[in-house]
Design goal:
By secondary structure, the chain is mostly beta strands. The chain is 4% helix and 45% strand. The chain contains one helix and seven strands; from the N terminus they run E-E-E-H-E-E-E-E. The chain is globular.
């Protein structure tokens, strides 16, 4: 069973630090995008999340949001599942949606990536 707490690095070299997962599945942390790590501002963005308690022998699913309030008026929602490969390496996988602020309802169609 995967332990989500700790430091994770994704394929784009962004870092995610997850603090201890509580008994009810809630957890918090911070997310540092590669863009901010390489620039003059290594700004950590807050991460708030919950992990679904898996059934016996199952792999946990989880969801979290990141508010990019330090450098952007946008939010990203992630949903995923944690797996362990044959070598015992824990790997969380996610799908994400980023929504940036736009000026009007008519522009909303271009706000989500």
């Amino acid at each position: 069973q995967c332990q989500l707490s700790g430091l994770w690095r994704n394929e784009q070299d962004s870092l995610m630090e997850i603090l201890a997962v509580r008994d009810d599945g809630d957890f918090q942390g911070k997310y540092l995008m590669r863009v901010t790590l390489a620039g003059s501002c290594a700004c950590a963005s807050p991460l708030k999340a919950a992990q679904q308690q898996p059934s016996e022998g199952g792999w946990p699913t989880f969801a979290f949001t990141v508010l990019w309030d330090k450098f952007s008026n946008a939010s990203t929602a992630f949903a995923g599942q944690c797996f362990m490969d044959a070598g015992g390496k824990e790997t969380p996988t996610t799908t994400w949606l980023l929504h940036k602020a736009v000026g009007s309802l008519e522009e909303d169609w271009k706000a989500t990536k």
